[in-house]
Write a structure and sequence with these properties.
This protein has helices at 28-43, 62-74, 90-102, 113-119, 144-152, 163-169, 209-219, 234-245, 275-280, 285-291, and strands spanning 15-18, 47-52, 84-85, 106-109, 158-161, 174-179, 185-190, 199-201, 224-228, 251-255. The protein has 295 residues and is of the alpha/beta class. The protein has a single domain (15-291), classed as HUPs (Rossmann fold). It has a 3-stranded parallel sheet with strand order 1-2-3. A 3-stranded antiparallel sheet has the order 4-5-8. Helix 1 (28-43) links the parallel strand 1 (15-18) and strand 2. The longest helix has 16 residues, at 28-43. It is globular. It starts with 14 loop residues before the first strand and ends with a helix. The model has no long low-confidence stretch (mean pLDDT 93).
């Protein structure tokens, strides 16, 4: 299956988005990305929307969503309504997943994380851009009747993109538009194959970050995506999914990351100082904005 060639966004006012996940408090890295999105939207004569990426049913909590909104308002950022919450759009993601499945471009995978690590272990084993072992394709050749029986039991499973078939359905060259802080466009070459048979739907929800984000960017008319450099490699996979689903392809800008004293990127999982911590210590919004290079 391949959809029509990606449609370029209409020549309208640019639309950007800041899309945090409510699985922890925002830190300075989030603040930088939110402020940069707002600043570029203003300079380009466009708007910036807020999206709550809460597909994780365990880690996403309502009180953290409320905290995100509070922190962004404290920084002086306001967003158009309605704010999109991914948890409210599972049917749309399921439909996108089912299109790929019906076209023979995705298959159910019953392997546990431990089994995948064991099968793909060893020195020199290929890894994806995030450093995870590439899926070795264990379930790719399962007999369809066996796969259907295991799903009917039901046996927990993810859905994986069959990368070889996907690339045959949407042959390259692959790429996407990029833009700099002045709005100048360039072109980046994409290599989706380095992600292997990526997960497009999790065990607990009918989507993954990758599938949900390309669907939502199209649904919200996002013309310019501004996000951290840690997501730059994911754009290769997103460009392919956009081709397969016939979705518009935004322009991308991947900004530098805010690092801690040890040179590591800030992260909720490492307990990086949050905006809430800074607020409690007496910091003012102007202090944070100035620290990050914004007036």
């Amino acid at each position: 299956m391949t959809g029509p060639a990606p449609r370029e966004p209409a020549a309208a006012a640019p639309v950007l988005r800041f899309a945090p996940s409510p699985n922890g408090r925002l830190h300075l890295g989030h603040a930088y990305s939110a402020l940069l999105n707002a600043d570029l939207a203003r300079r380009m004569g466009g708007t910036c929307r807020l999206r709550i990426e809460d597909i994780d049913p365990v880690r996403s909590r309502p009180e953290l969503t409320a905290a995100i909104v509070s922190d962004l308002a404290w920084l002086g950022l306001r967003y158009p309504e309605p704010v999109r919450h991914q948890s409210r759009h599972m049917d749309a993601y399921r439909a996108a997943r089912d299109r790929l499945v019906a076209a023979g471009l995705a298959y159910p995978c019953f392997c546990s994380r431990g089994a995948i690590r064991a099968a793909a272990s060893g020195e020199g084993a290929p890894r994806d851009p995030d450093g995870a072992p590439l899926y070795p394709g264990t379930c790719r050749a399962l007999d369809p009747a066996e796969a259907a029986a295991r799903r009917a039991r039901p046996e927990p499973h993810t859905w994986r993109l069959d990368m070889a078939r996907a690339l045959a359905a949407a042959p390259g060259p692959h790429g996407y538009r990029t833009f700099d802080a002045e709005g100048r466009d360039t072109w980046a070459t994409a290599d989706p194959a380095r992600w292997g048979d990526a997960v497009i739907a999790r065990r607990d929800v009918p989507t993954s970050y990758h599938l949900a984000v390309v669907h939502d960017d199209a649904a919200e008319g996002i013309s310019h995506v501004v996000r951290g450099r840690d997501l730059e490699a994911a754009t290769d996979l997103h460009a392919l999914l956009q081709r397969l689903l016939g979705l518009p392809s935004p322009a991308y800008h991947h900004h530098a990351l805010i690092l801690d004293a040890a040179g590591e990127k800030l992260a909720k999982s490492r307990g990086s100082t949050s905006l809430a911590d800074l607020r409690a210590a007496g910091a003012a919004p102007a202090d944070v904005r100035a620290r990050l290079g914004f007036p």
